[in-house]
Amino acid sequence: MARRAITTTAAAFATAAALLLTACGGGDDSPSDDIKGADNSSGSPSASPSSSAPGVKRPVIKLPSSFQLTFSNWTSSDPAEQAVLDDGKEQLRAGYEAIIENDPDSKDRAFYDTKNGFLQSQQWIRTYTDKNLTVIGKLPVFDPEVTLSKDKAAASLSYCTDESKASTKDRKTGEVKGNPAGTDPEVLYVISMGKNDQGVWQAVSAHSERGGCAK
Prior knowledge:
Layout: H1 10-14, E1 67-71, H2 79-100, H3 107-111, H4 115-129, E2 133-148, E3 154-162, E4 165-170, E5 176-177, E6 186-195, E7 201-210
Parallel strand pairs: 1-2
Antiparallel strand pairs: 2-3, 2-4, 3-6, 4-5, 6-7
């Protein structure tokens, strides 16, 4: 799938994004137009894969089988790029775990965010939890690209998601809603990331563009 090239500049790594839309970016706070996740009442949980960075105690992130978050071609022959991919994946998984567990103060998500990044994450999570919504369905995550700064202390991670088979679910009424008819199901995300003292890649800011995957 053709995508716009990502330009590596200091601004790309430092700029603050708008509120998270689906997984991590955008300005629309309506969950009915956001990426969906899972209901925590059924199925066996899927745990986090083992970390590629030894010596760091990372949270074990669990998602129920009712939410199938899949990552296609999430590998790189470059170990530095792979480290960004690994932590970027867990950052996304931790966000959906927080929604499902109705926990905008999630310590798991905070582990993969800088202080400012976590404030942005909380705003996204609360667009669901404040309305008593969780998420269900299937969400493929694909076409990842990593751009590292020259000193390899900052990175830009982009990827696409397909919301076609994802929905929100009202915790009280059980009502299920997908995206409105005519909505482009594919969303492009660009995450600015920095490496902390432990060697963990954390999200600094995020931006999303619905329909951006086709550009």
